[in-house]
Fold each of these.
Amino acid sequence: MTLRHNNMSDATCSHALASSLVHQAGETADRHPMRTETSAGRYASELLCSGLDIVFCGLNPAVSAVVDGHNFSHPNNRFWSVLHLAGSTDRRLSPQDERRLLDYGCGITAVVGRPTRRAADVSSAEFRNARSALDATIRRYTPTMVAFLGKRAAAAILGRPHVQWGAYEGGFAGSLAWVLPNPSGLNKTFTLHALVRAYAQPRAVLAHGSRANQALGASAQGRGLVAGNPIASLRRTHHESV
């Protein structure tokens, strides 16, 4: 369905809709999932179900995603390509295929629910204030791992001034936690190759842990680590730190 209003062009309509969304978003600053009717259909910032392997947690929805009706829809965003090249999906999904991501054990959510043109438009206070709602969401859906896309939101949510890329030993909301680079095309620090390498790491840990659970059960060895099972080791570290 094409959005039209009087004699306005599609591009003008999309710009007007985007401006309206940003204006409305600026009036409220909570973490509630963004749901709205757009020219592409109904948009939801969350794509979740219970028991997923990993939930990718973005900073907040982009205005382009709300207008298009799908997450990570901007042509310069490398999310879908990176997931495929990292082995999380057997083909490159398009933003319109996003619901198929659940079939691969992956989900999507955002720290802050309101859309902005730039992630920098979300304050650190907003990220901190969103923690309790995000905590409740993760505990409700119980993914094995939550992956924060970017250090800024992760630092605010995890309550640490500085976080490192990779596994976060403290976990979050009962799940393992991982900090990944943001796949936005604006993130010039990470090349496509570097992103793929980073995103392949949690996938390898999840796959290894699954195989180890089937083969070894929950047998412990040495310093309380589960033999050959990095997931169980990380979980033990998380529980001991609580």
Amino acid sequence: MVTRQLQFILLGASKSGKSCVVERWVRPSTTPDPDETIGINLLSCAVRSGELYTTKFWDTSGRDCYDGLLKSYLFNADCALIVFDVTSMSSWKKVNFWLEQVEVTNSVKFPVVIVGNKIDLESKRAVYKQDVKTFISTHAMRNVVYCECSALNNDGVLDAYHMAVNFAKMPSHETVYTAKSFRKTDGCAIV
């Protein structure tokens, strides 16, 4: 059976939960291991979303010393996922840096999914949905969508995955897409 391939790069500050989010996608029945990523880690899984896809995730370290490695991975990706910790203002402030890296390497039309992680820590929240929506609209960002999840309790993680897969497989990124472009019925199944 022929499968298409989709490549994603996960970007974000150290300790934002990038590895835990992708672990939930690749190994949904296991509890994520919160060990820090050193350099870049590759994970993959198959997904059926209309047709069969092999999804590859380049999970990057959030440490500044590895930033130089990112351009070649960004260049080959179909979609960037920028993960930040909703309880950390410093994690949120790094989102703009990652968006600039994506734009310089690819274009403003390159698909980006911003993922707010750790929503299970609602009482410690420092960044709210409206803050992100305002940021996206104020900066007139094209082809950027936002979703939230908790990798710890697996809340919203699969929705974020569905959004990323459906966004990455769009035939042309000449059109500007928003979260409203994706219906709830556009789900996919990890196989």
